[in-house]
Amino acid sequence: MKGVVFPGDGTIVLRDFPEPEPGYGEVVVKIRASGMCGSDLHFYHGAFDFDHAVIQGHEPCGEVYAVGPGVDPARIGERVMIHHYIGCGTCRRCRAGWPQMCETAPGKTMAVHVDGGHAPFALVPESSLLPMPDGLSFEAGAAIGCGTGTAWGAIKRLGSVADTTTVVLGQGPVGLSATMFAASMGARVIAVDVDDRRLAHSAKFGADLVVNSRAQSLTDAVAEFTGGRLADVVLETSGRASDDALAVLGTFGRAVFTGLPGDVRFTTQAVYKKQWTLLTSWTMSSIEQARCAEYVVAHDLPVDELYSHTWTIEQADEAYRWFDKQDAGKGVFLFD
Ligand SMILES: [Zn+2]
Ligand SMILES: [Zn+2]
C-alpha cells in the first residue's frame, strides 16, 4: 500500500509499505477518511521532531478490517474513530483517557512515532478505538480526531462558556470549530482572524461578530460589543495572537491557549488585579473525543462543512502544497 511520508523539507513522498498485520490486542483499520491538520505543516517543514519514516496523518477514521488475537472478530466492519495516542494503558493518565501523558512509558503519537492514517490501512491497539455515533460521517470523525477535538478539549478545560462573550482568535479548522461549539453552547462569539477568506466562514459556524484584526482595532471592537467590559472567555488558536488574547480579556476572564508556538507574555504586576485564569490545552482525552462526537450528532453541527477540499492519496503532493498556503479551509484524504 502507498503511504504519505514527510521528509521534513516541505515535500511529500508516497512510499510503499506492507499491509499491516494485527498482533495481540491490535486491529487493522481500513481508513475511510484521514484529515489534514494544521499541525501537519510543522512536520511538513521539519519544525517539530518526528520519525521521518512513519506514515503521516493523525486524524484517521474508518472501519475495523482485521483483528489480532484477543480482539473480538465481531468488531470487523465496525465504524470507528481513533484516539491517535498510544500509552501503557494502565497508569492513571492512560486510565483517565490521556495516553499522550502516559506516566510509565513515553506516549506514542500516530504520524510522529508510529504510522498514521494517510494510507489505506492503519495498525492500532484496540484500546485506541472509539465508537462512531450513527449519523457521524467518516470526515467528521476524522476532524474530531484532532482539529475539532482540540477546540472541544479547550472548551472543556475552560468549563462553561454559556452566557459569556467569547473571543476566538484564529479561524482555521480549530478556531472555526471553537466558534461552532461556543455558539452552540450559548456564548456570544466574536470570531477574529487577519484573513477575510477565513472570516467568510465564521458567521456560518455561529459567530455573532466577525473582526479582521488587521483592518480594525480588535480591542475597540470587543469593547464596543461588550459595553467596555471586554471578553469573559478567549480561545487563542492561531499561535500568533497571545498579545491580542490578553488585550481583550476582561476582569475575571478565562483564556485558553492551544495555538503553537504561542509566546505568551505578561507581568503579574500589570495584570494581577484582573483576576485572570489562563490555561493551556493539549488536544483532548479519548473520553472527551467520544463525547465530542456525540455532541456533534446531537446538535447536528456542520463539522463536514469545515472541509473545502477532498483528495486521493495519489494527490498528496498537490494537497499539501495547497494546505501550506493557509488560505482557508481544510482538506481530507478519502479512501474507497
Ligand atoms: Zn500509561
Ligand atoms: Zn492535529
Descriptive notes:
It is built from 11 helices and 17 strands. The chain has 336 residues and is of the alpha/beta class. The protein folds into 2 domains: 2-146 and 284-334, Alpha-Beta Complex (Quinone Oxidoreductase, Chain A, domain 1), CATH 3.90.180; 152-280, 3-Layer(aba) Sandwich (Rossmann fold). The strands form 4 sheets. Strands 3, 4, 5, 8, 9, 16 and 17 form a 7-stranded mixed sheet that branches. Strands 12-11-10-13-14-15 form a 6-stranded parallel sheet, sandwiched between helices. Strands 1-2 form a two-stranded antiparallel ribbon. Helix 8 (242-247) links the parallel strand 13 (231-236) and strand 14 (249-257). The radius of gyration is 20 Å and the shape is globular. The two termini are 13 Å apart. The model has no long low-confidence stretch (mean pLDDT 96). One zinc ion binds at residues 87-88, 91, 93-94, 102-104.
What's the quick description here?
The protein has 336 residues and is an alpha/beta fold. The protein contains 11 helices and 17 strands.
